[in-house]
Every structure is written in C-alpha cells, then in structure tokens.
Amino acid sequence: MKKLKNESELLKEALRVGAIYAQKRKVGQFEPTDSSKQKIEYLYKLLVHDKLIQPLVKGDETEPNMKRKLALWISRQLPESHPLLK
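The structure assignment produced for this chain is given below.
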C-alpha cells in the first residue's frame, strides 16, 4: 500500500473536520484527554456507521488502516486547490 503524500497532515485535518462533524450530529465530542488512537477509532466507526466511508474487512481494522481510510476520506472532501493535496 503506497503512502499518501502528506498523510499525517491529512489525518490531522480529518480529525479536526471529524470533530466538527460529530458535534453537529450531536453524537459526541473529542476531549483534550482523549488519545489519538481513541479519536481515530471513534471517527472511523462514526463515518462507517453514517456510510460516508466503506468499512475495512473484518480483521483488517488496525490503527494504520483506519488512519489511511480517514486520510483518504478527507482528501476527497477538500477542494483540489487545497495545499495538502499538492
């Protein structure tokens, strides 16, 4: 699996946008004490539940795979001219 360009920055943006999405849906919010792993897993499961991303195959639900899914999701939400996509 080829790594995305700016994958870590895309993941940060996905978590930021995902936190706003979760608040607007009134399903929760990230706390400053939440670990990165908890945020990634929660956002991944929320987006799968809302059918905004396709779920990973059972047994393939590892943190690196969830990070990649979130980075891919946000890369498709951003406009083509966004600096993270260049």
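Interim note for the steering committee: The mean pLDDT is 92. DSSP finds three helices and no strands in the chain.
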